Each structure stands twice: as C-alpha cells, then as structure tokens.
Amino acid sequence: MNISRDNLRTAAYVFWPLLILGGLVVLRFTWAGANTGEGAALYQARCANCHGPKGEGFKQLYPAITVSPIISGDPAQLACMIQNGVAGTPQANGILSLPMPGQPDLKVHEVTAIVNFLRASWGRSLPPVTAKVVEQGLKSCGDKK
C-alpha cells in the first residue's frame, strides 16, 4: 500500500487537531476533577443521604449544595464544615434546617477529596485544592488532625 505525501499531510491536518482536542478534554477532566473518584465515593457514602445524590437537598431540611456559595467560597471553611459539622440554620420560610453532623473520623486526604469533588461538580470547574490547604484550614478551625 503506497501512501503519498499529500495523503499523509491531509491526514495530519485532520487528525492532529483531534488529538490535541482529545488531550485537552482529558486534561480538563483530570484538572477539574482532581481526586473526584474518591471524593465522589466519599460524598455518596457520607453526604448524599441528606444532601441528595445530585446535591439537590431535601425540601428545607437539608439544603441543596448545587447552588451553595459556600462550595465556591473559601475551601478551608468548607473543609471545616465537613469535618466539624454545622448547627441548624434558619431558612427563608422560618423553618430551621437540621444540623449537619461532622465527619471527624475523615483523614485530611479524604476531606480534600470531598472538597475537590464538590468544587468540580454540578457545573462548577473550580481549581482543585491541595491537602496542605485543607490541613491548614482544619487547624485554623480548631481541628488538629
């Protein structure tokens, strides 16, 4: 089978951009979803019973986290909330949401995985946080893990 130089050049022009695009797609999901496999599993095991498998919450009792500004805010604050829990908060209709229990048995890398999962889910593409950032945040909120 003889392949001419023109055919090779044409194939290169067609397939090279596809290879680059494919690489960018892989990089995008790797970057935005850093550690999201473990984070997704931990979220499903530890958080989804209340916040829902898709972060939709349940009525006024468990807030939806798909639109929560806390997820997009300070990752150290989010880590503290995951590890230490949150007291119930009043909702707009006057109903008190249920308290969120803490997850004090989670290790720093597990909290980091959940934080990164939340930051890369439901339309968000926030940069991943390092375990060092989470560890410093946990220390600043009183946790010494």
Give the key terms.
single chain, 145 residues, mainly alpha, 54% helix, elongated
What is the helix tally? 7
Spell out the helices and strands N to C.
HHHHHHH
| Inertia-based shape | elongated
Number of beta strands: 0
Strand content: under 5%
Radius of gyration: 21 Å
Q: Structural class of the helices, strands and pairings? A: mainly alpha
Question: Alpha-carbon distance between the termini?
Answer: 65 Å
The helix fraction, in percent, is 40-55%
Which parts are unreliable, with pLDDT below 50 for 5 consecutive residues or more? Answer: 24-35
Please describe the biggest sheet, giving its number of strands, its sense, and whether it closes into a barrel. Answer: none
Mean pLDDT: 79
Descriptive overview:
The protein has 145 residues and is mainly alpha-helical. The protein has a domain at 33-47 and 68-88 and 99-140. The chain has helices at 5-32, 36-46, 48-51, 69-72, 75-84, 108-119, 131-140. Helix 2 crosses helix 6 (108-119), helix 5 (75-84) crosses helix 6 (108-119) and helix 6 crosses helix 7 (131-140). The longest helix has 28 residues, at 5-32. The protein is elongated and about 75 Å long.
